[in-house]
Design goal:
It is a peripheral membrane protein. By secondary structure, this protein is mainly alpha-helical. It has 18 helices and 4 strands. The chain has one domain.
Length: about 475
């Protein structure tokens, strides 16, 4: 009997060893594919890893904890504009806890109706939160010059080429959410509802050629015989702008998946959940063998998206470097520290020596380039509207925020001349960003920075299985 048990144990150990070798082989294969220079730019992955780990990640984490950037106003009740609502996620982790009015810094609420917090800085101390919510209470303390400036800002916003469908912050359904208390993580939301959202994004908005019959949606059922190489050959026939569009969406999808894998509900005992990295889930979504070679490509698209948003941060720096721009919450000391940290991050972004060159996009004849840019903008705006179809409130919150962040980055990249020509002392002329756009921009890039850091952590966890 002992001999038989030993034989069974030996066989079990052999099977375990075979599985570990298979995992190790996949790790080495993935690492071999996830190196070198990215397509459509001259930057290598190793440089991004080092830059993000040692310069950006620690600072962007600190910035996201500041009051100005942790409170995001969002409408999670907007109906889906494309199909009948198929029900909201009933899992408790899908729930978003809105922030009580009393917790919102008075300066943020006072400035929510304004484009610039500098003018709010000139207002008198507001007596309570109820008074702060009344636009009349704010307007009564403003100079005529500031009032005219607000009109100018509104006119400019109406003419801006927005890449996102923006929430109406004045809607009674719009609420402030504390992002630190509602972290992005795996909620259990999946199935037909999630599939429909991503399928609509990929199949209807990613410039899919009619000749490509295979679904672009990674969540779609696989067809036998397909491989990563044959799947990605369709990209080669597209112009740069359309290739970039697909990579941005794929990179955003990869980043979101990484967040879910890194912050996964591992167990829940006695009502106390334990969240952490799920190596098995990461392998299922990104391993070359599990994804037929597509996993490493998805992760490369994450790096490409990181480069795009990094470039936008470096381009928008002059907008914030002006003394007229404050990150106003009502706490003067914290506001000054927040702006100093933001400018420090901008200096780091400018020091990166392998930026994506956005000037290579829309560089053809003026008429064709203008038409393509408009098509690009409308496709992305459509994707921002699809985020209102997400059935899980927490997923919808982070989907809307990250989509708006990317849309703001695109707005910046295509407004370089307007940013460069900004007057130093006038807040009302030219390029503008709302507070919501600023918060979304910083937090969206923070999510990408976290994704790349978590990717390094997963590499270590996988190598520990050797």
């Amino acid at each position: 009997m002992r001999g038989g048990g030993g034989g069974r144990n030996a066989a079990a150990r052999a099977r375990l060893a075979a599985r570990l070798l298979a995992v190790l082989g996949c790790v080495l294969t993935a690492e071999a594919q996830l190196t070198g220079v990215l397509d459509d730019c001259l930057c290598d992955i190793e440089s991004i890893d080092d830059f993000n780990t040692f310069k950006i990640f620690p600072k962007i984490q600190k910035l996201q904890e500041r009051d100005y950037f942790r409170y995001y106003k969002v409408n999670l009740k907007r109906p889906c504009p494309f199909w009948a609502d198929d029900g909201h996620c009933s899992i408790k982790d899908c729930h978003v806890e809105p922030c009580p009015e009393s917790k919102i810094p008075v300066g943020i609420k006072a400035g929510s109706s304004n484009k610039y917090s500098k003018a709010a800085n000139n207002s008198k101390e507001l007596e309570d939160c109820e008074q702060a919510n009344k636009l009349g209470a704010v307007n009564s303390t403003l100079s005529n010059q500031s009032k005219e400036a607000f009109i100018d800002w509104a006119r400019y916003d109406d003419s801006q080429d927005h890449f996102c469908e923006l929430d109406d912050e004045r809607s009674p359904d719009a609420q402030y959410v504390d992002l630190l208390l509602n972290p992005e993580r795996y909620t259990g939301y999946k199935g037909p509802s999630a599939w429909r959202v991503w399928n609509s994004i990929y199949e209807e908005n990613c410039f899919k050629p009619r000749s490509v019959y295979r679904p672009l949606n990674p969540l779609a059922p696989s067809r036998g015989g397909d491989d990563g190489e044959s799947f990605y050959t369709w990209l080669e026939g597209l112009c740069l702008e359309k290739r970039v569009f697909y990579k941005l969406i794929s990179g955003l999808h990869a980043s979101i998946n990484l967040h879910l894998c890194a912050n996964y509900l591992l167990e829940e005992t006695w009502g106390k959940p334990r969240w952490g990295p799920n190596v098995k889930e990461f392998t299922r979504r990104f391993d070359p063998a599990e994804t037929k070679g597509e996993g490493p490509r998805r992760l490369k698209n994450l790096y490409f998206l990181y480069l795009i948003e990094l470039r936008a941060l470096s381009k928008v720096a002059p907008y914030f470097e002006r003394a007229v721009v404050d990150l106003y919450t009502g706490n003067g000391h914290e506001d000054a520290e927040s702006k100093a940290l933001l400018l420090d991050i901008f200096r780091d972004t400018k020091s990166f020596h392998m930026h994506f060159d956005e000037k290579s996009m829309f560089a053809g004849d003026k008429k064709g380039a203008k038409s393509l840019k408009e098509e690009f903008r409308l496709h992305f705006k459509n994707i921002s509207r699809i985020m209102d179809c997400v059935g899980c409130d927490k997923c919808r919150l982070w989907g809307k925020l990250q989509t708006q962040g990317l849309g703001t980055a695109l707005k910046i990249l295509f407004s370089e001349k307007e940013i460069q020509s900004l007057p130093e002392n006038s807040p009302s002329k030219g390029f503008q960003l709302t507070r919501q756009e600023i918060v979304a921009l910083v937090n969206a890039f923070g999510r990408l920075s976290t994704s790349i850091k978590e990717l390094q952590n997963f590499k270590v966890l996988l190598q520990q299985t050797r």
